[in-house]
Specification:
444 residues; mainly beta; Neuraminidase; 6-stranded mixed β-sheet; 4-stranded antiparallel β-sheet; 3 helices
Length: 444
């Protein structure tokens, strides 16, 4: 995933004045974070999820933290998640069921990390993912797409029933992608970016030790999914290839509202640039059946996949994308000065990319994450949050009274910012933390 592969916050008036001086255009909201705990909450990072009636379905991911550098120790079987979880955050309950009674290929994919995933209606679509396969006797990127009937599976788990009838899988080598992102735009699925990585990770390259084969997708793969007697079939497949601008993985693919209310997605940042192991700082917009690269904007914060909350205000035609912590080359110091660290550390930064009048600006907020959190985590909206479009909150509905808008779930919890080169496996871990996110409007 990485390198190759309340707290109640009180805002002082002086801090807000400094933030206001830095913020043009304005971010007219205050965000507050509050930690909560649930007994038996799974500690997972780089997992897939779906929601149904306020409950979370959590699949895949890893139980350990940042991967180690040694091929024999990294992405080991012990760290794989061999359970499916259902979490009820309101009533603080957790259910789990082992994968052992499912078909072998389903088990192997569903315990992988960094799958592409997308929920549409009551179905959760899962593509690819990386992990150990007993069938292949090696680490591979899985060439499958799996479809889960979310409501049926959750209901079965709540009643301790068999879940196998809720899951169907087909093999398709075009779905063998890890570290990419899966989304749906109208009737078309988008499998954007990512890579196919087969073999054991080795920081010294593919020809050292056990060796590996790594091939970036460099594509946005477009397709529809049709059903014949409940068996999914990939149709209308096409791919857009760009070996320069789409050569990225482990990034954030975020729904956006563009000019004239056009819905699309943005590929924010990601890794790695060709000439050196540093993140991209430009981004790629996907809309209207094609893509557009924006090289006039430099994203400094949250370069890897992290928890993200998008909001849109129709009245002001402003798009706000809030990134919570994660990993980045840059971060603000205690004086508000931006520090450049090419080792790309964990950070506590909460940043916002604001888009208005076809212009972009990035700011950081005067609050931080309560620890080195956010990387490989997910943001899950409250089921009663007012949404502008699917996946995007209605910023115009945010009031001056504080509103509980969603949760930051899981991810990596690191003990320090720079741990990659000294990582023994104890410096970070998967997080069982849940962070409640509150928001309220400022000004008139």
């Amino acid at each position: 995933m990485i390198k190759y592969f309340s707290v109640s916050i009180a805002f002082s008036l002086s801090v807000l004045i400094v933030a206001a001086q830095q913020t043009k255009p304005e971010f007219p909201f205050i965000i507050r974070l509050e930690q909560m705990e649930i007994n038996n909450m799974p500690a997972l990072q780089s997992f897939a999820y779906a929601t149904w009636q306020g409950k979370w379905l959590m699949i895949g991911g890893r139980k350990d933290g940042l991967h180690r550098r040694q091929p024999w120790a990294t992405f080991d079987e012990e760290g794989q998640n061999r359970f499916i979880y259902v979490v009820d955050p309101q009533n603080k309950k957790v259910w789990k069921q082992m994968l052992e009674n499912l078909p072998t290929t389903v088990i192997e994919q569903l315990q992988s990390t960094n799958m592409g995933f997308c929920q549409t209606g009551n179905r959760l679509f899962l593509t690819g993912g990386y992990g150990y396969s007993k069938t292949a006797d090696d680490h591979i990127t899985f060439p499958y797409i799996t479809v889960i009937k979310v409501d049926e599976l959750i209901t079965a788990m709540l009643n301790n029933k068999d879940i196998s009838n809720s899951i169907v899988q087909i093999k398709d080598e075009r779905m063998a992608v890890t570290g990419g992102r899966l989304a749906k735009l109208r009737d078309t699925f988008l499998l954007a970016g990512g890579q196919r990585f087969d073999g054991r990770y080795n920081p010294h390259g593919p020809d050292h030790g056990p060796g590996f084969k790594q091939e970036y997708s460099n594509e946005i793969r477009k397709f529809t999914i049709e059903y014949d007697k409940e068996t999914p079939a990939i149709k209308n497949y096409a791919a857009i290839n760009d070996s320069i601008n789409l050569h990225r993985r482990d990034y954030n693919l975020v729904p956006q509202v563009f000019k004239n209310d056009e819905l699309g997605y943005t590929m924010f940042s990601g890794v790695f640039q060709y000439n050196q192991d540093i993140p991209f700082t430009n981004f790629v917009d996907i809309a209207g059946g094609t893509y557009k690269v924006n090289n006039s904007f430099e994203q400094k914060f949250s370069h890897y996949h992290t928890a993200v909350m998008p909001l849109y205000d129709k009245i002001s035609a402003s798009m706000y994308t809030v990134f919570f912590g994660g990993i980045a080359r840059y971060y603000p110091d205690k004086n508000g000065k931006t520090v450049d660290n090419k080792e790309v550390p964990f950070t506590k930064t909460i940043s916002v990319v604001i888009r208005k009048d076809e212009k972009e600006e990035e700011i950081f907020l005067p609050i931080q994450m309560p620890g080195y959190l956010g990387a490989a985590a997910e943001f899950i909206f409250m089921p009663d949050s007012r949404m502008y479009m699917e996946g995007i909150a209605d910023a115009g509905s945010v009031q001056h009274e504080e509103n509980f808008i969603g949760y930051i779930v899981g991810g990596i919890n690191s003990s320090a910012n720079n741990i990659f080169f000294d990582n023994t496996g104890k410096e970070s871990k998967a997080s069982s933390k849940i962070i409640k996110v509150f928001i309220k409007k400022t000004g008139g």
